[in-house]
Amino acid sequence: MEWRGRRESSNIEDQRGSGGGGLGGGGMRIPIRAGGGGIGLIILLGILWIGFGINPMSVIGMDDGTQTTQTTRSSGPGVNGTADETDDFIAVVLGDTEDVWNRRFQSMGQQYREPKLVLFTDRVSSACGNASSASGPFYCPNDQKLYLDTSFFRQLDSQLGASGDFAQAYVIAHEVGHHVQNMTGILQRTTDMRQRMSETDSNAVSVRVELQADCYAGIWAHDTQQAGLLETGDMEEALNAASKIGDDTLQRRSQGTVVPDSFTHGTSAQRVEWFKRGATTGDMAQCDTLKGQL
């Protein structure tokens, strides 16, 4: 992805080294959903929390269930051993999402409220509660902020086999996709609906929400490609990342079996399909994973 020297978003809050508020203030550590993985939906104490929902260390059997692994910064976009430019890269990608969604909301006669992206290490406090980096990147609709520990990019590359700068960009674009859902009222409506459902039916709705965020990430990729900013292999990097975080792939890798009723994020094939649909069509109407549900 061609990103160096381009506009960087100013909507970034750097909380690294601040301690993140620990686990005090009445909050609690966000648990990793059993059998979950990829970009997940967690409802905790009535508060909506949307994030990657994956502890990569647990996937490969190296997490002891206590504190997350030591946080280290990624060595740069693509984790390719170059000088660390991750912060600049993140700011450019977020700026790209702002440009894309500002244009699209304006075309619909609406105003897009740009989300903040919070960088943290180890643990962080949000309006949705407290979390450790083991929870993965997440979006909190209560404060309209994205939260990211950049060490996740290293884990994405070395432990899940999803390398490349556009794989990292996909992570950010997906969380922004949840913000778009929040702006359009989808998150609140699906949250209300899930509270009246059985666990199995609620999980099925969660999958649809996550796949739509994947499709919205594809919409961003479509517009970025149309602007001539993608390089050879970028789309393949994002599609590979989507395939690596499917529920079925992660469950098979971590526990050797697959339990479809526990899926909350979608299979690898579904993640790839919906990202590709958004990237190919560039049409938000084609991202209606909840058709007939709302």
Question: Your description of this structure?
Answer:
The chain has helices at 56-59, 86-107, 151-158, 165-183, 186-194, 199-226, 234-244, 247-255, 268-281; strands spanning 12-14, 40-44, 47-51, 116-119, 123-126, 129-132, 138-140, 145-148. The longest helix is centred in the last third of the chain and has 28 residues, at 199-226. α2 (86-107) packs parallel to α4, α4 (165-183) crosses α6 (199-226) and α4 (165-183) packs across α7 (234-244). The protein has 294 residues and is of the alpha/beta class. The strands form 2 sheets. It has a 6-stranded mixed β-sheet, covered by helices on one side. A hairpin with a 2-residue loop joins β2 (40-44) and β3 (47-51).
Describe how the helices and strands are arranged:
Layout: E1 12-14, E2 40-44, E3 47-51, H1 56-59, H2 86-107, E4 116-119, E5 123-126, E6 129-132, E7 138-140, E8 145-148, H3 151-158, H4 165-183, H5 186-194, H6 199-226, H7 234-244, H8 247-255, H9 268-281
Parallel strand pairs: 1-4, 4-8
Antiparallel strand pairs: 2-3, 3-7, 5-6, 7-8
Overall pLDDT score: 80
Structural class: alpha/beta
- The number of helical elements comes to 9
What share of the residues lie within helices?
A: 40-55%
Strand order of the largest sheet: 1-4-8-7-3-2
Radius of gyration: 17 Å
Strand count, sense and barrel status of the largest sheet are: 6 strands, mixed
